[in-house]
Amino acid sequence: MLDTYFFIPGDKQKYLDKIDVVKSDYIVIDLEDAVALKNKNEALELVLGLSLQPNCFVRIPFFENCYSNEQVAKLIQHFEGRIAVPKLSEKAEITQIKNLVPEIDLNMIILVENPLCIINLVEIMKSFSSQIHGIGFGTHDFCSITGMKHTSENLDNYKRQLLLYAKAFNVNYIDGVDLDLKDFTQFKKECVFAFEMGASGKFLIHPKQIEKLREVAYLSDAELDELHSVYEIIKDIPDNMIEVYTIGGKVYEKPHIMRIKKVMRKIQEFSKN
């Protein structure tokens, strides 16, 4: 029940040709880590030649000096402001990006990949949350920079912190990539943890992960039965008329009802796909 954010390398024509058939909620075309330096210009031309849907973002290596300001501006314009910003550290860097295309309202995914970004994130959100689609946690870069072992025990508290910031400013929290494409045990655990703490989506790098994400059992059979039975009773109640209800011996207040409606909408979307 998490939204999918699927990375596609910007220099691979065969993958770019399949964008329209990938069953992902969002596409992130990658011009950063997935593209070797020698292929950056080729990838730029390929990406600028694409016809894009409104669910497509582009990850641009803003701070690596591999593209000129003019090239970066063309990319932002082509994607109508839908950009993923990697390696961000401070608010001034977003201001620099905005100054390249002052006429465009940005729609950003902020990738938190270093400690300084976490420290500065509240300040960033106060200034730019209206132009931020979501916060994504780049756990592998974060662990590389900090020297931290990449385990859930080490990372889960940071995930909770970032989700709290996201909720405070009404933007999405997107869980980071899992790199194991053979054993999906940890991947599924990450999906359940992300869902249970209130995340909106997860970054994916392989079509198998899209399939596996749809297999994840986010709720037990008993929880699903309860969800369906309560939903059938409250589904037609307008949000502004929700009161307190006792159903099956349990009390449900407005926050519970709103979450039930939200989860059921996602279940219904999954069943259609």
Automatic annotation (TrEMBL):
Q: Which cofactor does it need?
A: Mg(2+)
Indicate which residues the UniProt annotation says bind Mg(2+).
113, 141
Lineage, top-rank taxon, reads Bacteria
* Residues binding substrate, per UniProt: 59, 113
Show the GO MF annotations.
Answer: lyase activity; magnesium ion binding
Question: Which positions fall inside the HpcH/HpaI aldolase/citrate lyase domain?
Answer: 5-207
- Residue ranges annotated as coiled coil are none
List GO BP terms, alphabetically: oxaloacetate metabolic process
Recorded hits in InterPro entries, A to Z, give: Aldolase/citrate-lyase_domain (IPR005000), Citrate_lyase_beta/mcl1/mcl2 (IPR011206), Pyrv/PenolPyrv_kinase-like_dom (IPR015813), Pyrv_kinase-like_dom_sf (IPR040442)
Keywords attached to this entry:
Lyase, Magnesium, Metal-binding
Matching entries from SUPFAM superfamilies are given as: Phosphoenolpyruvate/pyruvate domain (SSF51621)
One Pfam family name from the record? HpcH_HpaI
The record ties this protein, via PANTHER family, to: HPCH_HPAI ALDOLASE_CITRATE LYASE DOMAIN-CONTAINING PROTEIN (PTHR32308:SF0), LYASE BETA SUBUNIT, PUTATIVE (AFU_ORTHOLOGUE AFUA_4G13030)-RELATED (PTHR32308)
Q: What is this protein called?
A: Citrate lyase beta subunit
Look up and give the organism this protein is from.
Answer: Ulvibacter litoralis
